[in-house]
Amino acid sequence: MSIRPASVRGVSHRLQPPEWQQLKLAEAIRQLWTTSGIGQRFAGGVTVSPLPSDPDPESKTVIYRAAQEALSNIARHAKATRVDLALGAAEGRLVLS
Fold it and tell me: Which of 33, 53, 75, 86 is 20 to 30 A from 26, comparing alpha carbons?
């Protein structure tokens, strides 16, 4: 049995966290907004309020993936004229809207 170099690379890439996971959540959300292209296609913007601390990795992933999916759906399906993305904290909870 031989191991192909491409499969070894695939495994090694999955072992390293994606680049966004190395950022604070606030920075990752801002980067997501920029790379999604939503800001160029729609009026609106991204607002990230100061967070008391960065959430645990699991919560961070859930928030990031929710924002990612929302922006993807907007880009594909919405007939919106304005898109605003906000991340903040209220009453000890993270709030993404």
Answer: 75
pLDDT at 53: 92
- In this structure, what are the phi and psi dihedrals at residue 57, rounded to the nearest 5 degrees? -55, -40
Closest CA to 30 of 18, 47, 12, 11: 47
Q: Name the stretches of the chain with pLDDT < 50.
A: 12
Q: Name residue 96's beta-bridge partners.
A: 87
DSSP E strands in 1-97: the ranges are 43-48, 82-90, 93-96
Query: Of 64, 59, 58, which Cα lies nearest the Cα of 27?
Result: 64
Q: Kindly report the pTM of this predicted structure.
A: 0.78
